[in-house]
Amino acid sequence: MRALLEGLLTVLKHLFIKPVTLEYPEKKRYQSDNFRGKLVVEGCVGCGVCKKVCPSGAIEYTKNEQGKVVSYTFDLNKCIFCGNCMYYCPHKVINMTSEFELATTEKTDLKLTYKGGVND
Description:
3-stranded antiparallel sheet; Alpha-Beta Plaits; 3 helices; alpha+beta
């Protein structure tokens, strides 16, 4: 009987306390400005710094005969979201968004390819 009363008191005590959990996906938690989510590239010049500082080797880019960037690829299968590519980019063209819902059933969907660069 004592255990039953203790259980009821616990339920009553928590009845008036604000819930800790969120009703995901209807309600989403605020992401900090320092959050490192999906990578976006706009206007890469192909200097190669990001590729050199990437510890996991997740960055590839291709250039044409004139040395202009044709496409830029992030492989999120390898990416550890360290942010080195963004921090060390001298042109500040790589950004990390607050997008975190990157789950997919196809591994090929985790290769993000961006076309073109500043010197198109």
